[in-house]
Amino acid sequence: MKTTFLDFEQPMAELEGKIETLRFAQDDSAVDISEEIGRLEKKSQTLTKEVYAKLTPWQISQVARHPQRPYTLDYLDLVFTGFEELHGDRAFSDDHAIVGGLARFNGQPVMVIGHQKGRDTKEKIFRNFGMPRPEGYRKALRLMRLAEKFAIPVMTFVDTPGAYPGIDAEERGQSEAIGRNLYVMAELKVPIIVTIIGEGGSGGALAIAVGDVVQMLQYSTYSVISPEGCASILWKSADKASEAAEIMGITAQRLKTFGLIDKIVGEPLGGAHRDYPAMAQNLKKALQDALKQVGALSVGELVETRFQRLMAYGRTKEQAPR
Amino acid sequence: MSWLNKLLPPKIKRNENGVARKSTLPEGLWSKCPSCEAVLYATDLGNNLNVCPKCGHHNRLNARARIDLLLDREGRFEIGAEVLPVDTLKFKDSRRYPERLLDATENTGETDSLVVMQGAVKTLPVVVAAFEFGFMGGSMGSVLGERFVRGVQAAVEQGMPFVCVSASGGARMQEGLFSLMQMAKTTAALTRLSAARLPFVSILTDPTMGGVSASFAFIGDVVMAEPGALIGFAGPRVIEQTVREKLPEGFQRSEFLLEKGAIDMIVDRRQMKDKLAQVLALLQKLPAAA
C-alpha cells in the first residue's frame, strides 16, 4: 500500500518519492545504488522522527483522520480471533457505522463494539463516514446487555467525527439513544475497556466510551466539538481550526495530564497507518494490561469504582455563597 | 459597565418578577410576542409566567422564576451554590473565559447555569434543578455537573424525587473535554436515584439541545416538555448543512417529539406545578395533592 502523505508531511513525501525512483532505477541498472538508497531511507526516518516529535494538536487531528488509519475491523483482524459479527438493534435496522460482536482475545471471549469508517467512496457512504444513527447506539446497547448477561468483558473502539446530524436520526431519538447508553454503561456489571483509536467526536464518541479503563492511541483525539466546529462558532470561521485544536486540549497527552484518560498507547513512527502489525501489537499489550487490571475486581467493586471515577470528572472550586 | 454596577451584589440586579435583565424579552414596558406579534404590557407577561396571554407562546423563564413556579414558598434550601467555575484550559477566543463568566454573572445574578433547590411541590418533598439559559446559553460545564450530582445525592439521601428543568444549548466549549464528561457524570448519578426507586421527572423547555439533550434529559421516568420548545441533538442549522434540504415545519419542536414518541406529554407552563405534583404522587403511591 502506498502511503498517503498529509500536508505537513510533504518533505517526507518528496524523500520517499526519491527513494522510490531510485529503487525502480536499481532494477535495470549495472551500478549498485543500494548504498545511496539506504542513506536516503535513514534520512527519511530521521526526518519523520523530527516532524512527529513536534506535531501540533491540529496536525495530530489530521493523523487521527488519516485515510489509511487502521479502523475497528482492522484491529478485529489483527488483535482478535474468531470474530462473530452480530447485527441490528431489533427495532429498526442495522447501522453500519457501528460494528460489534463476539470475538476471542487471547482465547478469552469478549464483546467488541466500535465505530467503523469506510476506505473508498462507496464504503464511506455505506459506513456513513463513521457517524452512527440511533439504531447504531441501540445495537451497541443490546450487545452490552448481552455481554453482561453472560459475564463477558466489553472492549470498545472509538473513531467517529460524531453522531449523525440528520433528520431521520432526530426523528428516531438520537439524543435518547446516546443518553441511554451513558446511563447503562455507568451501571453495566462487566468490565468495559475503551480505546480511542482515531477521532473521539463528542457525544457520538462518548456514547460507547464510558468505561473502567479509557485509553487513547498516541495520535488520536478526543473532544467536545470538532476543531472546525469550535472555530466556526467562536471565531465564525472554520479556518481557525488549528487555533481551536490548540486551545481545546484534544490530544492524548493533554487529556492524560488532566486525568481524563488513563493511558496513552504508543504508535509506530509516522503513525498507526505506517505499520499495522506494530500498532496491533502495542494495542494488544495495552488491552491485556487493562483487562488484567479490571479483572481483579469483583462486580461490586468494579461498578463502584467506575461510578466514583465518573463522579470525579470536572474541575470546580468551592467558596461559601455570598 | 461602570464601577458602581460592579459593586452591586447580583441579587439586586434582578428585577421583581424574576426575569433576568438580559432575558429574551426586550427591555421596557412593552414587548412584542415573537409568535403572534401582539403588543404586550411587560407586567401582564410577567404575571402570566412569560406566557403570551394572547397566543400562549412560551417565552423563556429564568432559573429562579422557574423554581418559584414549581416549589412551595416554605422550606426551601439551595444545594451546590458553593460550587464555582474555574478556567482549567485558560480558554480564550475573542474574550477570555473568566470574562465571559463575569459578564454572565452580571447579567443573570447567577454564578453558573444551574440552580438546585430542595423544597416541596404542593407539600411533596422534592429536589429541583433548573437551568439558567441566560448564563452562557445554559451550557453544561463542570459546575453544572457537580451541582446536578449534589442535587441527585441529596434526593437519594433524603428519599425524595428529583426534577430537572432543562434549557441549554449543550456542552460548554470553554471547558473542553471536561464538559463532555459532564454528560456521563450527570447521567451516571441518576442510576443511584433509580436504584433507590425514586422518580426522576425531566422537564424540557426551550431550548434543550446537544450534550444536555443527549445525556440525562431523556432518561426521565417521565419526560415532559413545554409547548413549542426546540428539543434535539444537533442544531437545525447543522442538520440543514449536512443533509442540504429544508427541514420540515415544526421539526424538533415539542409537538414533533410527542408525535415521534420521544416524550410523554406536553404541559402548559401554567399547569406545570399541578401536573408535576400529580405525576410525583402517582409514582410514589401517595394520595393526590390538594
The total of beta strands of chain B comes to 11
Helix content of chain A: 40-55%
Largest sheet of chain A: 8 strands, mixed
State the total count of DSSP E strands of chain A: 9
Order of helices and strands of chain B: HHEEHHEEHEEHEHEHEEHHEH
Multimerization status: heterodimer
Radius of gyration of chain A: 21 Å
> Helix fraction of chain B?
25-40%
Q: How many angstroms does the end-to-end distance of chain B come to? A: 47 Å
Count of runs of 4 or more consecutive helical residues of chain B: 11
Shape of chain B: globular
Structural class of chain B: alpha/beta
| Mean pLDDT over the full residue set of chain B | 91
Biggest sheet of chain B: strands, sense, closure? 8 strands, mixed
Largest interface: A-B, 54 and 65 residues
The average pLDDT score of chain A comes to: 95
- N- to C-terminal distance of chain A: 65 Å
Number of helices of chain A: 14
Quickly describe the structure:
The complex is a heterodimer of chains A (322) and B (290). With 322 residues, chain A is of the alpha/beta class.
Please, could you describe this protein's structure?
The complex is a heterodimer of chains A (322) and B (290). With 322 residues, chain A is α/β, with parallel strands linked by helices. Chain A has helices at residues 10-27, 34-53, 57-64, 72-79, 121-126, 134-149, 167-171, 174-187, 202-206, 227-234, 241-248, 252-257, 276-295, 299-311; strands at residues 81-85, 98-105, 108-115, 154-160, 192-201, 213-217, 221-223, 263-265, 316-318. In chain A, strands 1, 2, 3, 4, 5, 6, 7 and 8 form an eight-stranded mixed beta sheet that branches. Chain A starts with 9 loop residues before the first helix and ends with a strand. Helix content of chain B is 37%, strand content 18%. Chain B starts with a helix and ends in a 7-residue tail after the last helix. The relative contact order of chain B is 0.12. Classes of the chains: A alpha/beta (322), B alpha/beta (290). At the A-B interface, helix 7, helix 8, helix 9, helix 10 and helix 14 of A face strand 4, helix 6, helix 7, helix 8 and strand 10 of B. Strand 9 of chain A pairs antiparallel with strand 4 (83-85) of chain B.
